[in-house]
Design goal:
Layout: E1 3-8, H1 17-28, H2 30-33, E2 35-40, H3 55-58, H4 65-75, E3 79-85, H5 93-100, E4 110-117, H6 122-132, E5 141-142, E6 148-150, H7 165-168, H8 173-190
Parallel strand pairs: 1-2, 1-3, 3-4, 4-5, 4-6
Length: 192
C-alpha cells in the first residue's frame, strides 16, 4: 500500500486539529486504501528555514540535522493530506514553515487538503493550493475534492471541544470519501 502522511497543520496548545484529523482518518476510509501516518508538526517544530540556499537549489543536500530528518521523512512518503485550520485568512505559520523547508520531496505526489474554520477554511485551503501548485515552483498532484469543514459555535461544548463530531460533520462524509478515491486515482495515473 502507498504511504500517505496526514499532516496536522496546527501546533497551538489549545487546538482541535487532532480531533478533526482523527475524524477524517477514521471516517474517510483512508486506511482501507493506504498505509497512513499522522504527522503532528508539534513533534517536529522546525525553526525558520536556515539553509544558505533555497530548497530547490539544495537538491536534498541539507546541512542541518533537523532539515535532514524532515527531508528524509517526507521523501519517504508517497502522498499527503493536509488538515489545516484557517488563521487570519491563511495557513498556520508552522505549516507554511514545514512546507517551505522542502521542494523536490513534495513534487509530483498525490495531495489533498481538508480545511476548517468559521468560513470552512476556504482561504487557508486556497492559500495552501497556491503554495503547493498553481504558479508555485512546487507542483503536487492535487485532488479536485478539497473538503472545507464549517465550524459553528453551537457544535462546541462549554470547554470549547467539539461535542459530537460525527453529527456535526456528517454532511462532509461524502467529500472525505471522495478525497480517498481521487487520491487512489492519482496514484494509479502516476504509475501508468
Amino acid at each position: 500500500m502507498k504511504k500517505v502522511a496526514v499532516i496536522m497543520g496546527s501546533v497551538r496548545t489549545h487546538r482541535i486539529n487532532h480531533v478533526i484529523t482523527n475524524w477524517f482518518v477514521a471516517t474517510s476510509g483512508l486506511k482501507d486504501k493506504f498505509n497512513v501516518e499522522i504527522v503532528d508538526l508539534k513533534d517536529w517544530m522546525l525553526p525558520p528555514y536556515d539553509e544558505i540556499v533555497a530548497p530547490m537549489s539544495l537538491k536534498g543536500a541539507y546541512t542541518t540535522e533537523h532539515g535532514k530528518k524532515w527531508q528524509k521523512y517526507i521523501d519517504g512518503m508517497e502522498g499527503f493530506v493536509f488538515v489545516t485550520p484557517e488563521y487570519n485568512k491563511s495557513v498556520p505559520h508552522a505549516l507554511k514553515t514545514h512546507v517551505d523547508y522542502l521542494f523536490t520531496e513534495w513534487n509530483g505526489k498525490p495531495t489533498s487538503i481538508v480545511s476548517y474554520g468559521y468560513s470552512g477554511g476556504d482561504s487557508s485551503s486556497d492559500h495552501l493550493q497556491s503554495i503547493l501548485g498553481r504558479k508555485s515552483a512546487i507542483q503536487v498532484k492535487m485532488t479536485e475534492t478539497l473538503p472545507q469543514l464549517l465550524l459553528k459555535k453551537d457544535i462546541f461544548n462549554e470547554k470549547w471541544e467539539i461535542a459530537d463530531i460525527n453529527s456535526s460533520f456528517a454532511q462532509y462524509l461524502p467529500a472525505t470519501k471522495k478525497v480517498v478515491s481521487e487520491l487512489d486515482a492519482l496514484f494509479k495515473s502516476s504509475t501508468k
